[in-house]
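Pair request: fold both.
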Amino acid sequence: MAKETWKYLQQIPVFADLEEEELKKIADLALTRRYPKNAYIFFEGEPGSGFYFVKSGAIKLFQVLEDGREKILHFVREGEIFAEVVLFDGGPYPATAQTLEDTEVGYIRNEDMEDLLRKHGEIAVKIIKVMSRRLRQAQIHIRDLALKGAYGRLASTLLNLAEEYGEKKGEGVTIVLSLSQQEIANLIGTSRETVARILSEFRRLGAIKVDRQRITIVRPELLKDWF
């Protein structure tokens, strides 16, 4: 049986400290939308009409560079919020959202949430904290692109993904996102061929194992050697 919407909201950091009745009031605002794998939820530049949270599935947020390549900004999974930046400025969506698998999301319109924020100022503060964390992550990613070579960027990215999306499985931590080599390349700003070569080297060293697009970190200390 699917969880009630307020229980998904409870998983989102911005709402985690709210009481059940407060969460249910927010849940009353939410519309449920379902998308198949590889579907687009919104495109970069579209008017930002509301924000979303993931009830099941996974989403990638990306921008398209001038040469047509994707620059992946963030992955979003169950219980996480995305597109919250449009809540305050009413501007366009700054990135495109596409599903990585069959996905169900909750959607809350800006105007409805704004009415709620006027009554619950503490929620606005928590949303700002979430945005600050995302900004910090973006700054770290920009620093990595500028200062680290491809080996260091990929090693750092794998460890960050394992920390955020990892599950302990026997001999290591498995990243529970099925990512293609091209998607990883888009994430660290290099080519698919370079990613394939580096992953092969990391495998040869015994740092990782790869099985059907799932990467398991076996010896994280070997990846840290590339920093």
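--- second member of the pair ---
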Amino acid sequence: MNESIKNLLERRSIRAYKKELVPKETLDTILEAGEYSPSGMGQQSTLMVVTQDPELVARLSKMNAAVMGSTSDPFYGAPTVIIVFSDSKMGTCVENGSLVMGNLMNAAHALGVDSCWIHRAKEVFDSEEGKELKKQWGVPEEYIGVGHCVLGYRDCEYPTAKPRKDGFVIRV
């Protein structure tokens, strides 16, 4: 089987991480894959903010949990977080950001790094605290949070794929 197809079929979301950081060279390759994601009209209207700072990761996790009304860690202990933002003035902003998220997760898997898409980035960065972080990072005001891509090395068994549902593909 083609290695790219194999990676797409085998990647799973991981929900328990070790504290071990993704090495810089590996992280840079994953980020480059995100940079090369397709985008509407080739506008490249997304931004990625990446951190491995434990205090900032904990802060972002707490902000995300607050959106859910929870105190549990929605990042599952992952030591690396990439926040994907997209220009809300673009009609394809959510799609563009989603393509970046997909490339990040698939590239991570291909390099032996585990990942999970964590939702609620829009709500987190619509908050006053989130807006202040965007300003501090130089993210334009009109950019919305699309997702948090958490990365690391799993601290659990690798999940098996659920059976695919019938009718997923309709051929006409």
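Observation on the second member. The CA atoms of residues 24 and 30 lie 10 Å apart.
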